[in-house]
Amino acid sequence: MLTHTNAAADEISSRIDNLNIETERVWCGTIHSFLLEWVVKKYAGAIPRLVDGFSLISEYKQKKIIQSIEVDKKLESRLRYNSDEEGNAFVEPYCHQVDSKNKELLVIQEYNRIKEDNKYIDFDDIIKLGVDFLNNNSKICEHLSKLIGNIYLDESQDTSLIQLKALSYITRYDRVSVFIVGDNDQAIYQDLGVSVKNKDILKSELQLSELRHETLSGCYRSSKLLVDYYKKYSASHNDVISMRENDGRSPIIKDISKDELPKRIFNLISQYHSKYNGVDGVAIIGPDKYYLMGLINDLYDISEYFVYDFQSTNPLYCVRNTVFYELIKLVLLDVSVVNYQRRHSLARKIIDSIPELSHLNPLQLKRDLKEFQSVKNNFILWLKELYVFLEVKYQKSIKLETDYNISNAAASVAKLKAGMGAIKKIINKDKNVVSVSTIHGSKGEEYDYVITIGYHDKVVPHQSSYDKGNDYAQDIANRLMYVAFSRAKDYMNIFIDDRKAVSPFFIRELD
C-alpha cells in the first residue's frame, strides 16, 4: 500500500491494524520508503555509490548544506534545492530571481560533491538510485513482481513521473494487480513540479495493459452545508453531493487580530472539550509550518492542558526514517487488546531493521523493552537513556548507532515544546491531543472540527504562483483551499488576520 506522506501511511497502517486481520504480508508506506527498504538498502552492495555505506540526510540537514554553500561561495541569494517531476535537480530562489544560471549550476555541483564526500544521500537520491538500479536489473524487477501480488496506490494525483517510473518496473508485469485512488481536485503539488495526471497518463506511465476508471461523487465525510461551501473551489467543477443525513452547519468566517487569535482558538478548543470530553476530533490547519509555529507556541503559553501534535514542536518528527521512530512508539504505546496488532507490527518492523535483533521474535522484543524505565521528560535525555539501554541489552549495532546520531542531531536543533508525557499522549491518541497540520500535511485526514487560518494574499497561493500567471495562481489557490476545507466533517472556523489582505481567491459568500 503506497501513499504520498508519512502521516497518511501511519493513518492507513493504524486503520489496518484496527481490523485485527493478519498483516504479516501487508506493507504500507510512501514510495520513497518502499524504494529505500525494498531496493536501495537491500541491494546497496550492488549500487556503486552505496557500496561503502551511506547516511540518509534530513530535509533540515539539506537546507543547512545549501546555506553553507551560499555563504562559502558568497552568492548573496537565499536558495532552495529541489528536483522536477522527472528527478532532475535544480535550484530556485526563495523571493527573487537568481541573477545567473551559473550560480544555480554551482550550487548543484557543490551540493553533490558534499554528498559524495560524506556518503550522504537525500530523499531525491532514493528515487533516482532506485530507478537506475531497477532499470539495469530486470531479474530483480521480475522477482519483485512475483513477490508483490497487489499494489494499492493512494493519492495518485500527487505522484510524480519518476515515482510512477519506479513502480512501472514492477507493474509492467501483468501478474501484479494495481488499484489506484486519486482526486485531481486535491492535486496540490503542481507548485512543486508535479503535473495533474488523468487515467491515460497513469496507464501509460505504469505500463498497464488495462485500467478501468470509475468516478465517485458521493461524500460520506462532510455535512451538506460544508460540502456546498468547499465544492466552490473544485477545479474540475464536480458536483460533490453529501451523503450525510443532516445539513450540518455552514463554516464560520471571522476577521480577527493576530494578538486575539490564540486566545480565541484556545476558547473554541476548550468549548469543544467541555461538550465532547476530549479534543481528538479537532484540527488546526494552516498554509505552512512557519505560519503555524508561532500560533502553537502561543497556545502552549496560554495553557499546557492540551497537547498539540505538530511537526515543528513534536520530537517524533525528528526521528522519522530511523528505527527510533518505531522503537519510541513501541516503548510508549499502552499495552492493551486494542493495541496488540499495532505493537506486534512495530516489533516486527524493528527486528527486520536491525540485523543484530534477528534472533528475537516480536514477543521477546516487547518483553525486553518493558524493562526500560526513565523518568526524564526532556526528549533528548530520554532518547539517550533508551539508546544506552539498547546498547547494553543487545550487541553493538551500527544501525542503532547511526540512527541514534541522526535522531539526536535533529532533536538538538529543533524547537521542541512537547516533553515525554505529551509524546506518550500523542502516540496513544489521547483525547486531549489536538492535531495541527499544514494544508499539504492534512491530505487524507478528516476531523469533526477544523480551525483553519492564513488565507491571505501572497500566502495562499505563494508569490511564486503569481509569477506563472493569474489563472495558474487561482488554480493553485483553489486546490489548496479545497483540500483544507474538505477535511471538516461537522464544524469549521476560518480565521482571517484583519491586518492582512485576504487572498483574492478566497470566497466569503456562503450561499
From TrEMBL:
InterPro entries: DNA_helicase_UvrD-like_C, DNA_helicase_UvrD/REP, P-loop_NTPase, UvrD-like_ATP-bd. Residues 1-223 form the UvrD-like helicase ATP-binding domain. It comes from the Bacteria. Coiled coil: none annotated. It is an enzyme of class 5 (isomerase). Keywords: ATP-binding, Helicase, Hydrolase, Isomerase, Nucleotide-binding. Its EC number is 5.6.2.4. It catalyses: Couples ATP hydrolysis with the unwinding of duplex DNA by translocating in the 3'-5' direction; ATP + H2O = ADP + phosphate + H(+). Signal peptide: none annotated. The keyword rRNA processing does not apply. This is DNA 3'-5' helicase. The lineage of its organism: Bacteria, Pseudomonadati, Pseudomonadota, Gammaproteobacteria, Enterobacterales.
